[in-house]
Structure formats: structure tokens, C-alpha cells
């Protein structure tokens, strides 16, 4: 089971809260939009970052960030 | 009930009400700053959002104290129905009714906000606009009702709140609000 971080680009407005809370996985481009740091388009969330990822999801003011579980 | 205890309820009830107005003012201003997408006050963008939320929920708690104490307060003579249906009270019905209206709005906004993940961003945002109605109604209730109306300290607090919200809303409506300090480059279409 892997958890991946998914950004809904129709909702995201580049506020950058997610990159502040999850610098391990996300950076910001010059406009504040999140960039994956892992080289994967949807970064895999390692188990030890699970809690922080959930916090980042709930902190996104536009509900643009989601965790996706896949087998 | 002893005289000191009854005035204690009355004092606590009024104090909690004024404190709630201050909490909602802070929340509204920080909500606008959060919406701007700027990292102000060195809290981080997520930090601003958290303080915005905490201030709002503090206000909700203070309103609960405000209602609870005044319901049992023999001076205020609130009935349960006055907590829900506006403009039925016998004591300054207009000003009390505004308070009831504010409580109704606050209830809906709080529940929808707490269920944000269930209702989705559209409903969340639409209902959140109602805070711009809630705040002035709560302000009028605070200024118009109660024994503190037209006392200097209450006027001072109210003035401070109005100034803060007026400044934030003016900024919100200014053209530079949404740009976050960027300049947009119009797309060049090749012909
Ligand atoms: S916090 Fe949400 S809106 Fe802001 S950049 Fe991240 S995903 Fe986008």
C-alpha cells in the first residue's frame, strides 16, 4: 500500500501552505505552486511523514491537496 | 441567589460577549490575510490559517458562555426561544434579536466549516461569505444592547474592531489584493 500526495490543480491557487508544512516532499515554484521534490509527479508519502502529510492536507485553504492510497 | 452572584453572571455574560466580538474581529482580519496568500506576521501561511480558525472557535466558545450565563441571569430574562428565534424578546427586542440572528448565522457557519471535508470547497466558500453579514450584525448587537452601550470602554473596543475590519476589507477590495505583489504579463498571441 502506498500513499501519494495529489494536487487538484483546478483548486490550487498557489498559497504555498503545503510546501511550508511538508518541505520534505514539496517545494514551491516561483508563483507559490507546489512542486514535487521526489521526481515523481505525485510524491509517495513515506510512513514517517504520514501525520505531517495529513496536517498539510487539512491546512490547505482550498482543499486542493489529497492523499491517494493505492495498492 | 445572592446579589454578588447574580451580578457575577451578568458581568461574565457581557464580558464574554465583548470578548467574542474581539475574537471574531481577529478571525475576520486574519481570514482576509489568509485569503490574500501572503505570509504576514511571520506565522507562515498555514500558521495564519490556524490562528484564524482558533480565533473563530474561541469566539464560538465565548458566545456559548455569553448565552449560558445570560440564560440563567435574572436580569437578562432570556428564554430558550430567544436563543434561536430573533426579535421575540421583551428586553430591547431589536438589539437582542440582532444577537439571536448572529447566533443563528454563527451556528450555520461553524457547522459547515467544521464539516469542510464533507461539504466540499464550493459550499464551504459560499457559507463562509456569510461571515461578512455575521460580523456587522454582531457589532450592532454589541453596541446597541446591554448596560455597556455608550460607555467609553465599549465604544473604544467597538471602534478598534471597526477600524481593523474596515482596513482589512478595504485592502481586500483593492486591485492589488489578488496579485500577491506580482505583475501579470499578458499572453502574446502570435499572428
Ligand atoms: S496549500 Fe493548497 S492551495 Fe496552497 S499551494 Fe498547497 S495545494 Fe495549492
TrEMBL record, chain A:
This is Ferredoxin. Pfam families: Fer4_15. It comes from the Bacteria.
TrEMBL record, chain B:
The keyword Transmembrane helix applies. The keyword Transmembrane helix applies. Residues 16-138 form the Ferric oxidoreductase domain. It is a multi-pass membrane protein. It is found in: Membrane. Its main location: membrane. GO terms for cellular component: membrane. Keywords: Membrane, Transmembrane, Transmembrane helix. The chain crosses the membrane at residues 12-33, 54-72, 92-115, 127-144, 150-171. This is Iron reductase.
